[in-house]
Amino acid sequence: MHYEGMMIRPPSEADSILLQVTLGCSHNKCTFCGTFREKRFNIKKDDVIFKDIEFARKHCKRQNRVFICDGDAMIIPQKRLVNILKQIKERIPWVERVGLYANTKSIGMKTDEQLKELHDLGVKIAYMGLESGDDQILKEIKKGADSAKMIKMGKRVKQAGIQLSITVLLGLGGRERSKIHARETGRVLSAIDPDFVGALTLMLVPGTELNDQHEKGDFELINPEEMLEELGLMIASTHLSDGLFHANHASNYLPIRAKLPQEKEKTLELISQALKGKVELKPEFMRAL
After folding, report:
1. What pLDDT is stored for residue 195 in this prediction?
2. Domain boundaries in the chain?
3. β-sheet bridge partners, residue 69
């Protein structure tokens, strides 16, 4: 397989065929993220992509999922993306699901009919970074969209039949906006009603704008207990019709996997017990991005 530079993928795609179609992220401005700082966004040539698909046909017969990397494959022009999906369907017919990252810009560039076409060609799940439902925080981190746009684009993905997994980031509001961040994020998650929510815990990355703000004293990182309090308030404020709320990423202090709404109270009680010191938290040295 032809890979360039560092790639990331959702934890749930650990066993997927990783097909790198784009390089970097089309937005690449978020103040907390340093993943693709050294990568200029680009779409690989078709012959390189198709060679990787042919490699997968020969060597990846036990894997039935494909994840299209890098940071925002949804932004590929529809004609090219459709051609890639058709190649996957033709050359790797045992693949049951194709997943990719998407943002509000890339979703907004697709019509409802085009999103449905992607679904019909195998795109069964899209991963979107909400990070926060608070408009002030979204502006400060340079996310490129407000909460209303997040809600609109998230709903459009779901209406096309594509499962939606949304990522949120604990601690992103600092101490000053922690509670607002939790409640507003719960509000937006409730409005979108995604199939999956993945809550990560903020880890400051050297070289990012947010880390620079922290070192200057302009951003205050909350402690583990405050992160848990924020998580509890966020879950309490989130009303899903039938979804999974995960907080079991390597960055999290307390692994959580809860079916909402069925396991909400049980999960809130677990967080309460952890805050009382009755449940052990992950030590700092074991946390990772």
Report:
1. 98
2. 11-286
3. 20
